[in-house]
Amino acid sequence: MNKNYVKIVLLLFVATLLFTGVKAQNADKKWGVGLYLNFNDYKGDIANDFWEFGNAEPYIGSATLGRYLNSSFDAVFRVSYFNVESEGAIGNFDAWLFNTNLNLKYKFNNGYFLKEDATLSPFLVAGVGYTNADTKGRVFASNFDKKYDNVNFYYAAGLNIRIDDRWSIALETGIYYPLNDKYDGYKNKMRDTESYHDKFMHNTVGVIYSFGKSDDSDGDGVSDKRDECPNTPAGVAVDKKGCPLDSDGDGVADYQDECPMLAGDPLLAGCPDSDGDGVADKDDKCPDVKGLVQFAGCPDTDGDGVQDSEDECPQVKGLKALNGCPDSDGDGVTDAKDKCPTTKPGYKVDAMGCAFDNDKDGVVNEEDKCPEVAGPASNYGCPEIKAEVKKELEFAAKNVQFASGKDELTPNSKKILDEVVQILNDYPAYSLAISGYTDNQGKDEMNLMLSEKRANATKKFLTEKGIAMERISAKGFGESNPIATNATSAGRALNRRVQFELEIK
């Protein structure tokens, strides 16, 4: 083998490496090496042995280095060493050929004709190479022993049989078409060049092993080209398509599925919900009864916000504070226990739902103006003033008198007022209204002022005797409402008076 031939082989190999790296950043590229068994035939001036398999002897004489370019094309660098023998009417020859070729391979499993992972995939090959031949023979009684080096073309068709992602079997039939027509030791210029030009049939069967690191953006072990889920989080187990495992087939990946072995609802993190209430069985306290999310899947039949298991009145809408039972009058006692179900709003009640009546007079505290002293309802729950007491007040009103023109009580009047103090102590629920009057002596303005002072002087006397100030009111009315004539001194004395009236607070 001469030095020029070695240089050409090296140049072809380097060109293969450069050519196959064109789209390295955009495709899922794999390297592949192949080893082939050759069956080689000759067609030329001496004979036509194409498809005469009885003349071909098998040789393990081809090796390939291939590179994935894209879904349709591979680049393949082939090295072959094979023997061809032939005998015809004009002679015979025996040749050993060493050939290198750089080929472009078109694959039909490119997604257009067949799926890329098809088991059977036809292909076409075309390329250019260089051949070195060592030929011996005899033509027209002349012996020859020559060596040839020249460029050749190569075209072929074949079938690839995919075993798995790494191994495949390739069947290929191709034609080496050298530019030199002397490989059989003879060139007849008289013959049709196309028909008798030396060419060689190259039938091969071999195995191809694919290797090399594919692009795998998410690092799940499935190349980007085949990865149907290219953004799988790191560390997540995936299937052969590159998608996260979904053991129970519910559409929720195991790494996101809180119930990975039970098919469930994607909205419930892959967990089942037997009663269809929106609460996963694992969290449902009532898994066999459709309930509410807020009650951990338990029902609230009457819709009162209290789940049935805690509702003392599950068939009647009630109050949460009363364990789901109703309270018609809103007094805090359930209807079932309320003996006074129509209590007015805001009234304080006892355990039976009845308003309090401290003095037991039949008038509830909120309506009883004397809640601690029994009295008839007609008098707002306060005791009625006895007739003799009324008479005493009338007597006091007529006999509490003042010195003429003054607001000073007479000594006799103070004794009478002591009796008024006793009455107020006996009737603590009542208040006393004091009205002051004068005779008609003097100016009206002065009389009005004087009557006010006399009313207040009376009030002062009573409060000094221990009667609470807020129980007494005092007001002067001057010379109005006389009870006697002002024409006599006796009458005027009667008109200088105070009047008393007991009132319920």
UniProtKB/TrEMBL annotation:
It holds the Pfam family OmpA. Residues 1-24 form the signal peptide. GO terms for molecular function: calcium ion binding; porin activity. Residues 389-505 form the OmpA-like domain. Its main location: membrane. GO terms for cellular component: cell outer membrane; pore complex. InterPro entries: Bact_OuterMem_StrucFunc, Beta-barrel_OMP, OMP/PagP_B-barrel, OMP_bac, OmpA-like, OmpA-like_sf, Thrombospondin_3-like_rpt, TSP_type-3_rpt. It is a multi-pass membrane protein. Keywords: Cell outer membrane, Ion transport, Membrane, Porin, Signal, Transmembrane, Transmembrane beta strand, Transport. It is found in: Cell outer membrane. GO terms for biological process: cell adhesion; monoatomic ion transport. PANTHER family: LIPOPROTEIN YIAD-RELATED, STATOR ELEMENT OF FLAGELLAR MOTOR COMPLEX. This is OmpA-like domain-containing protein.
